[in-house]
Amino acid sequence: MPPQHLPPEVRPREKLLARGASALSDVELLALLLRTGIKGKGVLQMASELLALPRDNDGRAGFDGIAGLLNASAHDLDRVKGLGPAKRSELLAVLELARRAMAQQLRQTQSLGSPQLVKQYLQLQLAARPHEVFAVLFFDAQNRLLAMEELFRGTLTQTSVYPREVVVRALHHQCAAVVLAHNHPSGSVQPSRCDEALTQTIRSALALVDIRVLDHVIVAAGNALSMAEAGLL
Known about the structure:
By secondary structure, the chain is α+β, with helices and mostly antiparallel strands. About 40% of the residues lie in helices and about 15% in strands.
């Protein structure tokens, strides 16, 4: 049923204005962004199906809920019938706004007090990538974010990381500490032995210039693991 045919109290827009955004389901919030459905399919049905979209034969990500959708790339969205350039642009803009809002929070707060925020930020940045990406977050002495850089890119299964380059970039930013991060396109966030060995190698290299490794975060669609929280650092 189109939203305009629903009672006013359950229409997404009216419901949001009357009760706040938290009162809406994921489907209702997405329907507000999409605004209209397509022929034979109302916007609420379209939103519901979009959230449940499976991975396709070309390897483009399925969404499996709002977190997966927020990690979607333009490539993932372009296969969805009814999502024209305008709607795709709006969804991608929401994702970018979320990234920038989290980055601003990390710059303004002591990030060690918000490890969950760091993981969420890294999920938004890296989880949707179809290949491995190794990134470094650089922090000042108050643990506020100075910058994030993607230093190395690899294949679906591995990437070549050079500790010397991490040290060079850390010195460039004059940082006091770093958080290492990379994604696992396979979907698992469990660190491999190579991940653990690489972490210790970079930690030792940075220790020579008095820069701490606060954490190494591994992300995948809908999940993230902190090696520090797991006792692996």
